[in-house]
Specification:
Elements (H helix, E strand, L loop, with lengths): L6 E4 L17 H8 L4 E4 L1 H4 L11 E3 L2 H8 L4 E3 L6 E5 L5 H18 L7 E2 L6 E5 L5 E5 L2 H15 L3 E7 L7 H7 L8 H15 L3 E6 L23 H9 L3 E3 L17 E5 L6 H5 L4 E5 L18 E3 L2 H12 L19
Helix pairs in contact: 4-8, 5-7
Length: 350
């Protein structure tokens, strides 16, 4: 019997143009494959969110990026749950018809999937989302009224006892922008992802509850050249379903080291981390650098931060298919070198 659950962290940074995971849910096949190699898969919403598409992975833990960084640093633990009460925040800037579409999606999640949602709330002022793009090509953004967002979350937590928060903010419609067209055609960077991360970070940092975001956008005109990886975002009027499904069983955060209950788990339980080879500069990777880090060369991003530049030792593979093989070997206690035809001789330590 294994001494403890085999635990893998799968990271694909958001808003950096990842070849796999840079679109809506296109890293889901990776997550599904890796979930078969481990007892616990910890990953973040943009890996598992596919707009109206999602996949139930019973051993996956849906952990927002700020919380994942805190977990990796050993500051927060994760507490598995059977069900969360999800509070829904709608941006006052959303037009009435588009707001109705999102409320219908929420009701559908209640009636069809059996999810537990509280009463919803509309922010007391428009959030004022603005999109930006860094010189590196990575996307980011700001919101003009963060206080309005935090007040809405606080009311849901206090008045409805919500212990997870879904946010729908009105994002700018940039139908003619080159960045959006490139993204729809399978190249470039998700122009929304950086701003989405800001929204969820604010709530998780302030209230220590699971949070994820779905943008509200006007439907785009049909485009016969949309790339398969971007096609999930062409469906319907809302990206909310995957967020509600993810939050429904997202682990709660344990913010005190004294709360070492048997069901809670911490960074010292992580056995391996899988990350794009040129995206090793994030806080979670730096915190977990002494763990088995598997870097995937095929998943290129705009970050250009390889492990060698940081002095991090990794197992380098070309594809996620190879990464799955390394994880299987690692779980079996087999050195990957033993699976190659040429095994170098041992050297005497000088």
């Amino acid at each position: 019997m294994n001494p403890r659950p085999f635990t893998v962290v799968l990271i694909v940074p958001t808003g950096v143009g990842a070849a796999i995971g840079g679109y809506a849910g296109d890293a889901l096949p990776v997550a599904r494959a890796i979930a078969q190699t481990c007892d616990r898969l910890i990953t973040h919403p943009n890996v598992l969110n596919g707009a109206q598409l999602y996949w139930n992975l019973p051993n996956a833990y849906y952990v927002e990026g700020y919380a994942l960084d805190r977990f990796a640093a050993g500051s927060w633990g994760l507490q598995p749950v059977y069900q969360n009460r999800i509070g829904l925040i709608l941006d006052r800037a959303i037009e009435p018809e588009l707001c109705l579409r999102h409320l219908q999606a929420a009701d559908a999640a209640r009636a069809t999937l059996g999810l537990n949602l509280t009463d919803f709330i509309v922010t007391d002022a428009p959030l004022g989302v603005e999109l930006r793009q860094a010189a590196s090509g990575a996307s980011w953004g700001t919101i003009d009224n963060p206080g309005s967002l935090l007040r809405a979350a606080e009311q849901l937590i206090q008045k409805t006892k919500a212990n997870a928060i879904a946010v729908v903010a009105r994002f700018p419609d940039n139908i003619d922008s080159a960045a959006l067209q490139n993204y729809r055609h399978g190249s470039g960077v998700d122009p929304l992802a950086g701003a989405e991360a800001v929204i969820s970070h604010l709530i998780v940092r302030q209230f220590q509850v699971p949070c994820a975001h779905a943008p509200a956008l006007s439907p785009l005109p049909p485009d016969p050249d949309v790339a398969p990886r971007a096609a999930a975002e062409e469906l319907g009027y809302t990206f909310l379903p995957c967020v509600l499904v993810g939050l429904s069983r997202a682990p709660q955060f344990v913010t005190s080291p004294q709360q070492h209950a048997p069901q809670n788990f911490w960074a010292d339980s992580v056995d391996a981390v899988v990350v794009p080879a040129d995206a090793c500069g994030g806080s979670a990777i730096l915190s977990l650098s002494q763990t088995c880090i598997i870097t995937v060369a095929e998943n290129q991003t705009q970050m250009q931060v390889p492990p060698e530049s940081l002095g991090i030792n990794t197992i380098a593979v070309n594809s996620y298919l190879e990464a799955v093989g390394v994880l299987v070997a690692h779980r079996a206690g087999i050195s990957p070198d033993a699976l190659r035809p040429d095994i170098p001789s041992l050297h005497r330590l000088s």
